[in-house]
Structures are given as C-alpha cells and as structure tokens.
Amino acid sequence: MTEIQLWTLVFVVITFSLYIFIAYRSRVSDTAGFYVAGGGIPAPANGAAIAADWMSAASFISLAGIVAFAGNGYGGSVYLMGWTGGYVLLALLLAPYLRKFGKYTIPDFVGDRYNETARLVAVVAAIVVSFVYVAGQMAGVGVVFTRFLSVNTTTGVVIGMAIVFFYAVLGGMKGITWTQVTQYTVLIIAYIIPAVAVSAKVTGVALPQIGFGTILDELNGLQADLGLDSYTEAFTQTSMANMVLITAALMFGTAGLPHVIVRFYTAKSVRAARYSALWALFFIALLYTTAPSVAAFSKYNIINELGGTNGIALSEAPSWFTTWADVGLITQSGEAAAPISELASDATITFTDVTINNDIIVLASPEIGGLPAPIVGLVAAGALAAALSTASGLLLVISSSVANDVYYKKINPQASEKQQLLVGRIAMGAAIVVAGYLGINPPGFVAQVVALAFGLAAASFFPALVLGIFWKNCTAIGAMTGMIVGLGVTFAYMLWTIPIYGGSDGILGIPPTGIGTIGMIINFVVTIVVSQVTPKPSPEMQELVEEIRYPGRTRLVAAHAEGKDLH
Amino acid sequence: MDDRQRQEYWRKNLTLMSVLLVIWALVSYGAGILFVDALNKVSFLGFPLGFWFAQQGSIIVFVILIGVYVWRMDKLDAEYGVEEYEGEVHHS
Fold first, then answer.
1. Which residues of A fall within a CB distance of 8 Å from B9?
2. How many domains does one find in chain A?
3. Would A144 be classed as within a structural domain?
4. Contact B66/A277, CB-based, under 8 Å?
5. What interface predicted TM-score (ipTM) does this complex get?
6. Residues 6 or more apart whose Cβ sits within 8 Å of residue A257
7. Is position A500 within any domain?
8. Does A471 touch chain B if contact means CB atoms closer than 8 Å?
9. Among B65, B86, B92, beta carbon nearest to A562
C-alpha cells in the first residue's frame, strides 16, 4: 500500500464512521421526520445540507476541469454563473412561498394547486430526473474507490450503497440532513486546503480567489505561445447567444429541481426558508469561487510542468503524469486518443500533444502542486462526501414520491403512519439497489442526460411553480398543457441534436444544453394563453394562493395542511 | 393584516424583488456575457473585468442579493406584524 492509499483509507474510515454515528443519533419514527425532518432544521444547518445535496461528484471532481479544458477559461463561466444564479430565483420566487404552502414534495404542490393528472406528471418527472442523477453519483463513488484504493468499481459502489442504505433508511430526511451537514464540512475543507496551498505556492497570495488574477496574463501568454485561444477572452468556444441560453437553462433548471426544492420544506418557517437559501448559496459560493482559481492554477502548472513550448522528454515527465497516463485519463490528443504508452520513451511532448481528462484536475491538483500525501487522501474523502450526500438527497425524493405521492395519495389514503414509513423505507431500499446497479453498469447516455436534466426541469417545473404562486388565475389545464408542450419540445430537440442520437446541428446552432431556455419560454406562453380560455381555479383555491404570500398562520393554508380539498 | 395592508405588503415585496432581479440579470447576463468584451478592457486586481464578473463577481453579487432580500423582508414582516421567530414550527 502506498502512502497516498494509506492516508485515503484513514480519511475514508474516519468520515464514514462519523456519518454512521450521526445517522444513528438522528433516526426517526414518523413520516414528517422521514420526509422533511419534522420541518425543524435550523437555517445554517439546512443551508449546509442544501449545499452538500446540490454539489455532486460533478461539482467537486469535474467542475474545475471543465472550466480549464472544455471551456478554455471564459467558456466555463456558464456553469459557474448558471449553477449559482438559480439560487437567487429560488430565494426570491419559490422558497418562502412553497414553505408556506406546506406539504412534503413538488408533486404535492402541483397536485394540490392544479389537479391530480398534473400530480402524476410531476411524480414521473421527479422520479426520472432523480434516477438519472443518482446513477451518476454512484458511478462517482466507484471512480474514487478505484483510483485511490485500487478496489474494483463494483466493490466501491457496493460499499457506497451500504453506507447510504444505513443512514437514509434509518434516519430519512433527518438522518440525511445531519449527515449532509457533516459531508459539506468534509468536502469544503478538502476542496479549499489544496487550493490555498497551491495559490500560496505559485503567487504568494493565500486567497485563491485573488491569487489567480495575478497569473492570468502569464497564462494567456503561455496559451498564445502554444497556439491556443486566450484563456480570458470571451466567445472563443461558445457564441454570445449560446452563452446566454445555456446559462439561463442551468439557472432556471436549478430553480426547478425536485431534490433542491424539497429542502425548503425542511425549514422551520417561511423566514427560515429564506435564510436557508442565503446560507446555501453562501456555502456553495465558497466552492464555486474557488473552482475557477483551481482551474487556472492547474492549467498554468500543467503547461509549465510539461515544459511550455519546448516540451519535455517523456522519460522526464512528472510522476502524476505517468500515474494518470497509466489509467488512461491522459492520452495523446486527436480523435483516436491513443495511449501515451505507444510513444517512444525519448519522444518529446508538449501540452498540446496530450488530452487531459476533466475529472483529474481536482483529484490530481495536490499532486501536481507538490502537496503531501495526507492532503491527497483528504481530497478523495471530500469527493466521496460530495457523491454520497447528493445520492442520499436524490434517493429521498424517489422514496417520498413513491410513498407519499403514489402510495398514500393514490393507492391507500387510509394508510397509517407506520405503513407509510415502511413503504418509504422499502422504496428507498429498492431505489438504492437500482441506483447501485446503474452506477456499476452506467448506460451510455447518463453523462449527457445529467447535463440535460437542467433543461428539462427548466422547461417543465419552473413555469408551473412560479405561475402557480404568482398568478391566481393560472388554471390546471393551462399549467398542464404548458408543462407537456415545454417538456415535449425540449425533449424532442435534445434527441434530435445529441450526437449519439440525432446529431443534427439544430436550429440557429442552439445546442441541446441551451434548448431548455426556449422550452421554458414556450411553456410560459402556452400556460398563459390556455389559462385565459379554461375554467378559473375555485375561489377558495385563489384565496389559498393569495394567503401563501404572507408569513405567519393564515386560515386556508391551515385548513389545507389538515387535508381539506380546496378544488 | 386587513386587505389594504395585504396589498401594500405584497406591492412592497414585488418592488424589492424586481429591483433585485434586475441587478441579478445585469451582473450575470449583462456584465458576464453581453458587455464582457467592453469590460475586459478594464483591469481589476489583475483580472480583465468582464472575465472577473463571469467567474467571481456575479457569484459574489448573487450572495449579496439574497442577503439584502432576507434583511429587507425581515423588516417588512416586522412592519406588518407577520414576523416569525426561531423555534416557531408551524408545519402540518
């Protein structure tokens, strides 16, 4: 066992034991505890839980790499702005009102505000989006175990499943929330320590957010010498129109994702829901403002370590280069992506001769920056925390959709608390097994669909939620037609343009990742037009929508909470 | 709250929201994308300013916007007597 493996094992064992201990301490015995932690989580803790829930294996492992390589600097800004800007919409347009409305899930809101058919559409959409996501997280767990501890992917995923099974089934939302608070702490420490160390080492400025400004000129120069586009110049990778469309799809999609929205139901009050959004974005911003600096420093270091324009002999390549080339994450550039090992050992390589996988930037940055082994182990534990916390939040959405929205609302409305809890736990267990299977055998399209899920959420849920809150006369048929048309147009366009399916260039060069914005606009227009000509909501429903605007206890919201039908 | 107070409360809420959302759009879509080339001619802490907005500034402003919203809404709630206190749980 190498020193890095030993330290990784130490950190993994410590953090996993901590998660299990916390989960055991916060086990629950009622449905309110299982679905929404009894609505009793303080705002800062809820914010940290939202942040951990939100920042997945992709944020932790891939984001910096995507900004550095795929986006060539500026182009990656769509993810930085898109995945944070959505929280402003959540805080101002959704969180306080959905919290006042009460209940447990998005389908609850859609079903109670509109009608039962709309509830079913929402259930199906919520389950599909969540499964796609969770498969990606389980695959992420497998990747970390394989690369750092040399166990095979299946063993890695099974270990991850066992841990999530233990705390999610036992503790429901309460167990998940308190574990996520711990996981956030682990992942943010693991992300920031190497970033600060690298920034201090390269620039002498410890704050990476400031430090990376001082190397940008030099980085632009290095890239120009290698014949690459400038790192900071706009629109070298993506046109202005597409930057706007993709950023918007990610922002509005964020504000429509079920596993994020459900977190605001766990807040103590309307006021606490607002504060939760503030804390969540603050905690997320710590990582999201650090990521672009990790991106710039890594690219700068990598170009320099590979000898700039002169290049270096392969036999002289640094040890991280050899390590990652051996597992095929650094290859020769070009379509074929031939392995590095096919080159003669005295061949000279430069940065442009090789392709570096986005995922290794964060995992390898401590090594590239020459930091000691314990920090590398810490980063591995952080990546696992990011993957497990997101997985558990998604599994809860699946479990509560099945147990609350389908079993309790549709199949057995007389179900006792005990029966509902049992169904919830069985659904959670089954979901974990399916997610694990998908993690071990990822279908080829998962990676694409994860990125596209935002567009689908933007085109379906966002207009139905916002209009349902802000427009009393928004009708059930209007909202449903809007959701179906918005979702349909977006989905069809995606199938038409995604390389592995249609591969068409599409209309006006709009990429599949940006179409969600168009779908959302269509949804808004259709909903508003159809609502003009269809029967208005009942006067009581209109009054209920009026009441969710004001905090504190109000008559109809209280009646609704006790189960009164207001249609 | 009576009906008139409700209308006032809601109008003030909508005004606050609109102002904050205009700023939200200006820093991200405006400074980060539409006007990025012009802003990149200005240097800020070593960053081209447009690039800084796209990768740092917009995110920082987003946090501030929610902060201002939370603070102003607390004041508004107090003014209309609908403020909630920690520890008050009114979940169904």
1. 549-550
2. 1
3. yes
4. yes
5. 0.93
6. A129, A453, A454, A457, A461
7. no
8. no
9. B92
